[in-house]
């Protein structure tokens, strides 16, 4: 049965309470925890991220049972978890044991007690692709969850985007701080003003074709060892 309007409103309210953006690791864990708590029929959840080099990793697993399941899908290149970050944005299977798409993974999952599964795209950018994986021990658990899954992934993507912005901002501030320390070291060592010290580091960065942050890190490390 498709979710009714009151159910959707209940889900919306529950998500607003649970998906409070924070740092990236906390947000990922809140998303998988909320999937188990909010979406009917979900017993376990994880998030898979496909990196630019094609490697796959799982994060924020709600139960240790998922580690071999996710890894098996990566190894076989088969299963909703794998499809959700490599093919379409939505892969659902209502009976893993009888689904012809997963002849190798299906029996493996069923032996672990998992009978239904879905992989839902959460985000995609030039650095990575992320997908939410939901698992159930019941056959047919995710047959009628389109509206709820769309609402969930929208809310989760908003929280995730915010946490990524915070992560990027924190990284930028940390980089700025390290470069500032590097400039200070050059100023002190060569008794030159700040602008000249910064220009010196910039030229060194261009000459070596490495980022300015790396030059600063090397200077800081050299001073700490002296």
Question: How would you describe the overall organization of this protein?
Answer:
- Strand 4 (116-124) and strand 5 (128-136) form a beta hairpin.
- The longest helix is centred in the last third of the chain and has 45 residues, at 146-190.
- Helices cover 57% and strands 15% of the residues.
- Helix 1 runs parallel beside helix 6, helix 2 packs antiparallel against helix 6 (146-190) and helix 7 (194-208) crosses helix 8 (212-225).
- It is an alpha+beta fold and 226 residues long.
- It has eight helices and five strands; from the N terminus they run ααββααβαββααα.
- Strands 2-1-5-4-3 form a five-stranded antiparallel beta sheet, with helices on both faces.
- It is elongated, with a radius of gyration of 23 Å.
- It has two domains: 5-165, GAF domain (Beta-Lactamase, 2-Layer Sandwich), CATH 3.30.450; 169-225, Winged helix-like DNA-binding domain superfamily/Winged helix DNA-binding domain (Arc Repressor Mutant, subunit A).
Quick structural overview:
This protein is an alpha+beta fold. The chain is 57% helix and 15% strand. The protein has 2 domains: 5-165, 2-Layer Sandwich (Beta-Lactamase), CATH 3.30.450; 169-225, Orthogonal Bundle (Arc Repressor Mutant, subunit A), CATH 1.10.10.
